[in-house]
Amino acid sequence: MRYNLILRFLTIVSLMVTFLNCEKDELRSELSGIWIELTNRNDTIDFDSWGSEDVFILRRGFELRNGYSLPKYGSGLYRYILKPDTILLNNMLSSSAGYTSHFFQMNSSRDSFEIGNFYDTIISVHQPIIFYKVR
Question: The domain containing residue 19 runs over which residues?
């Protein structure tokens, strides 16, 4: 009797883990490609994966600083980990090895997503930024 309960519990847990992993893999494949910021249409995110690491490149253009044309603040390569309604980010060009947590939600038609402001110093850190898929 107890053996049957343990077996059922383990079966349910393994099915849940499999379902959640499939859902993450599906979302990961839907993210693959280039996305553009909706309001100003200047910033793009290019999602990709390098082996087992999920990464994206945030391109923001260039600005003149101290006489040099440099990438705008926040531009660069990021590692990411998807969680329900959250994305954990690590700027690979930073000396920090830690991840920061930000709001993330894909819309139902899968052609746009909202992400918590992790790079734009002009708008509030609490204001989500909307990106839509280009290709």
Answer: 1-31
Query: Any idea which residue has 């930000």 for tokens?
Result: 102
Query: For residue 115, which of 91, 93, 89, 96 has the smallest C-alpha distance?
Result: 89
Q: How far is CA 36 from CA 3, 96, 132, in A?
A: 53, 26, 6
Cα(90)–Cα(76) distance, integer angstroms: 10
pTM: 0.76
The one-letter code for the residue type at 122 is I
CATH number at residue 97: 2.40.128
Q: Are 9 and 62 members of one domain?
A: no
Residue 93, beta-bridge partner list: none
Digit-coded pLDDT (tens) for 66-112: 999 999 999 999 999 999 899 999 999 888 889 999 999 999 888 99
